């Protein structure tokens, strides 16, 4: 099975874990720990095997098998299913590469299924293992760390897209014929980026509600003792020190999610601004293209005027010459002494007259 890494955490600390994931489950239940398993491009049979062991919902499994899902969050009883669309900016080709990450979150496990190279979750795991206090908060804390990594990686993508837009704005007035196509391609990338980022604002908001207990009692993000504490805060009963610590943990975790929420809001604002800039750029490019075509049409008309004028000027002597070049026997002018100079004079007068007329009308 393509397991990138899997581990069991007890009280926020990693304990020795066997390679076989079934044995991992046995240890997880025996130690009352949390399992974090990462899969990379598993086969359908492997996904079904994991789904059976962790009792994952069939609809969530179906989404993973089909892939190409939009960013979203679905709730199936005690399990939460989150789809993320990570992204990274490829500076050498000025393109955005999108991935797909599925996260299954249960009361005592987190399973990630990656369908692409991005995001690299090893740094997330290492960072979390160094923050024991955060990791003791369980699966919701792990999901936060994954969300934080994905959203952080959106920042350089937004920077790269904004740089591309600045380059396009500089090329708009250069007459580059390919700028319109580049604007359209970049607009499609921004739209795809927005599809990845926009849904996360609602996803994180829902997760915050679940963490703070604003959802129903079936909320899998809260342990029973945490829900009991939330109930006790509305009563006059005493609150124990343990319950107070649990409440502080919930507040601290909510702060982390709030930070992710603020970050994704800023990213979404930048994406909306980028779409607006590209829409204006595309409109301006279309206007400049129409203006250029109109100017080309005017220039073409001017050239046609000149060509037509010279054609008319040359037509007059050509007509006279062709008439007297027919060599009929009975043409009186051929026997006339003044016929030749008169024909030349007539050619000159007509040509000069036409030239003067066209010059006066500014055709020449």
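^ Assign residues to that structure.
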């Amino acid at each position: 099975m393509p397991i990138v890494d899997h581990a069991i955490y007890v009280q926020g600390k990693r304990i020795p874990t066997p390679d076989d994931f079934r044995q991992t489950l046995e240890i997880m239940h025996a130690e009352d720990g949390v399992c974090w398993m990462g899969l990379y491009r598993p086969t359908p049979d492997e996904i079904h095997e994991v789904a059976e062991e962790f009792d994952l919902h069939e609809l969530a499994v179906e989404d993973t098998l089909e892939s190409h899902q939009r960013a979203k969050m679905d709730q199936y009883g005690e399990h939460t299913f989150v789809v993320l669309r990570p992204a990274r900016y490829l500076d050498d080709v000025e393109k955005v590469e999108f991935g797909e990450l599925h996260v299954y979150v249960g009361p005592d496990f987190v399973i990630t299924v990656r369908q692409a190279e991005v995001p690299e979750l090893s740094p997330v795991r290492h960072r979390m293992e160094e923050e024991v206090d955060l990791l003791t908060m369980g699966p919701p804390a792990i999901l936060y760390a994954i969300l934080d990594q994905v959203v952080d990686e959106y920042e350089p993508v937004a920077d790269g897209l904004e740089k591309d837009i600045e380059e396009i704005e500089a090329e708009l007035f250069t007459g580059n014929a390919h700028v319109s196509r580049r604007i359209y391609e970049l607009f499609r990338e921004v739209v795809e980026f927005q599809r990845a980022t926009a849904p996360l604002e609602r996803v994180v908001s829902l997760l915050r509600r679940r963490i703070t207990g604003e959802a129903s009692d079936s909320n899998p993000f809260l342990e029973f003792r945490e829900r009991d504490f939330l109930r006790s805060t509305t009563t006059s009963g005493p609150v124990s020190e343990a319950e107070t610590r649990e409440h502080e943990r919930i507040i601290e975790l909510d702060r982390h999610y709030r930070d992710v929420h603020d970050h994704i809001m800023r990213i979404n604002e930048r994406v909306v601004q980028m779409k607006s800039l590209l829409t204006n750029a595309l409109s301006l490019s279309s206007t400049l293209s129409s203006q250029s075509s109109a100017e080309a049409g005017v220039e073409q008309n001017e050239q046609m005027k000149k060509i037509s004028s010279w054609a008319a000027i040359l037509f007059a002597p050509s007509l006279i010459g062709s008439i007297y070049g027919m060599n009929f026997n009975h043409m009186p002018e051929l026997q006339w002494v003044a016929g030749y100079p008169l024909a030349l004079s007539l050619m000159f007068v007509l040509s000069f007259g036409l030239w003067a007329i066209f010059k006066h009308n500014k055709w020449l």
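The chain has two domains: 3-292, 298-360.
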